[in-house]
Amino acid sequence: MKQVKGLAQPLLERNPDLAAAGRNSFWILPIGPIGRLIHVDRTSNPAYCVAGWHLVESFRPEVDSWSSLGRCNQRIARSKGFEGGQGWFWSDPTIYDDFVTRIEADALAILRPLDTTRKCLEFARTRPATIGHLGPQWHLITCIVLGELDEAREIWAGIGRYYRKGTMTEDPSWQIMYDRYCLVGDPLMADDRAALAGLLHRWEAENIVGSPLEPYWRSELFPLEEDAGRAP
Fold first, then answer.
1. Where are the beta strands (DSSP E) in the chain?
2. Distance from CA of residue 45 to its chain's centroid?
3. Is 57 helix (H, G, I), strand (E, B) or coil?
4. In which band, very low, low, confident or very high, does the pLDDT at 230 lie, cut at 50, 70 and 90?
5. Distance separating alpha carbons of residues 110 and 108, to the nearest angstrom
6. 167 forms bridges with which residues in the sheet?
7. pLDDT at residue 18 above 90?
8. Which residues are CB-neighbours of 221 under 8 A, at least 6 positions away?
9. Of 187, 101, 100, residue with least CA distance to 144
């Protein structure tokens, strides 16, 4: 952690909209329903670390910890002409300046414009490198968040039968996620936007309140609610 702190300090000094919150994690402020994260991770080899950016969706049923990393992400490699590839070797003194260069060019330049929930989700679901990591559950919740409830109902028609209230999962670690999905069907089929928004806000709060992110977190309306507000 001391090494990561030294690596990231020049980056934080140059970019005041970044905050260190959590283990080796640096977030673009403010943190809304989707966090824009720069993460430095240890590897099995203590000689080097790896770095990457992530879009972290804290409202999803699958998220049971503030530190979970989203499906839309990308590893950040060294600049051309430097050794290491995707590994940042502590013995190489050039990593410190290059880290700032690459994070600003390959992460911040991508993430800063994604300053709304809608922009983040549209980016994720149309990004070729991400599409293969998305499944029907991801698209279901994304459609709900964006207020695309007809599309969400079409997805639920294919997967809803797998979610029955009171069912115990084989793996206890899946129970929270499973139980959350079981709550989606009734308000979705009833076109109850307020109830769906309530679920999303509750899950978001459960994942963030009490975590290192809470001081930087800003609760926001989802596009689902904004669309409802514009309806005649």
1. 18-20, 25-28, 34-42, 48-57, 72-76, 88-89
2. 26
3. strand
4. low
5. 5
6. none
7. yes
8. 197, 229
9. 187
